[in-house]
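Translate structure to sequence.
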């Protein structure tokens, strides 16, 4: 069993010394579920409660909570947060709260993300308790984190493909996008570790698992749209040290030449350490559009990330 880091040899509480840790970009994403009634959900959606805008107030409260984490939890370090984002997703009788905290420092931001969703959720309760005093805030947990421990050296010439498809993961739909990407990557000279198919809810954990194996390239397909279950961009963003908005926009622009629906894709592109990560839509056409753009860019991009290649 691992030792508790906040206890010294005599069992006394202590603040962990992080002075020798590397300064790195660190992110964490946490979620919480505020369970209430369908009536409350309708009122919040319509801004029909007598108090101020519920969602806007909860968002501000959550951000404020993240900034005050070290004051609320005594053994937490004071962190200079560089970003805190909070999102709310409506379900039939619940609101899923998601917070991502980011810093550049010597310790992680999991507690800041957890505090953010907890305070945002408590604010939801405070502002809706007149209608539903029995609401429940729960399922508070970290769903993704990055940074900190030194990363494994990227394995040159390797790639992985992740397919985000709930129906595909349970065998209800045959996936064609993963094999298409694997074949294309192999044609570009990459050794493809695997093509994995996961439910949309599991894409964050799968991305972290694959990233830990240090491939040079990770391409995801699916989960980039506006369906309530589409969470691939949200799973990807906390992992990125640097975004490549031009790549993502070029893929969307290519798709727009074929269908206006391409504008709805929220796919991201960027780097995590020396690994290139690109989100593609889940359709065959969307993957073909992405491949057409990456065909002209990927080799040069990977070379630049690895420290070589001309800077144009």
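Result:
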């Amino acid at each position: 069993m691992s030792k508790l880091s906040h206890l010294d040899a005599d069992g006394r509480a202590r603040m962990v010394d992080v002075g020798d840790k590397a300064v790195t970009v660190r992110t964490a994403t946490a979620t919480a579920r505020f369970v209430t009634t369908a009536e409350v959900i309708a009122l919040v959606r319509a801004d029909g409660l007598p108090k101020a805008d519920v969602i806007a107030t909860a968002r501000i409260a959550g951000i404020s909570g993240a900034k005050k984490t070290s004051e609320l939890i005594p053994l937490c370090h004071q962190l200079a947060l560089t970003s805190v984002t909070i999102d709310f997703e409506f379900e039939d009788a619940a609101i899923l709260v998601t917070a991502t905290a980011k810093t550049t420092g010597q310790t992680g931001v999991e507690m800041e993300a957890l505090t953010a969703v907890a305070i945002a959720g408590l604010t939801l309760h405070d502002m809706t308790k007149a209608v539903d005093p029995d609401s429940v805030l729960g399922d508070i947990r970290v769903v993704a984190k990055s940074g900190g421990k030194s990363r494994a050296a990227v394995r040159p010439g390797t790639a992985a493909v992740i397919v985000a498809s709930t129906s595909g993961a349970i065998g209800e739909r045959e996936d064609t996008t993963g094999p298409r990407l694997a074949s294309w990557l192999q044609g570009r000279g990459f050794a493809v570790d695997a093509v994995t198919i996961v439910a949309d809810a599991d894409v964050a954990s799968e991305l972290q698992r694959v990233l830990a194996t240090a491939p040079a390239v990770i391409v995801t397909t699916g989960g980039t749209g506006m369906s309530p279950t589409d969470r691939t961009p949200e799973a990807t963003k906390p992992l990125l040290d640097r975004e490549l908005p031009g790549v993502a926009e070029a893929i969307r622009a290519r798709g727009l030449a074929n269908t206006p629906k391409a504008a709805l894709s929220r796919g991201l592109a960027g780097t995590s350490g020396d690994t290139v990560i690109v989100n593609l839509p889940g359709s065959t056409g969307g993957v073909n559009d992405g491949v057409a753009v990456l065909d002209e860019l990927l080799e040069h991009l990977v070379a630049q990330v690895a420290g070589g290649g001309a800077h144009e």
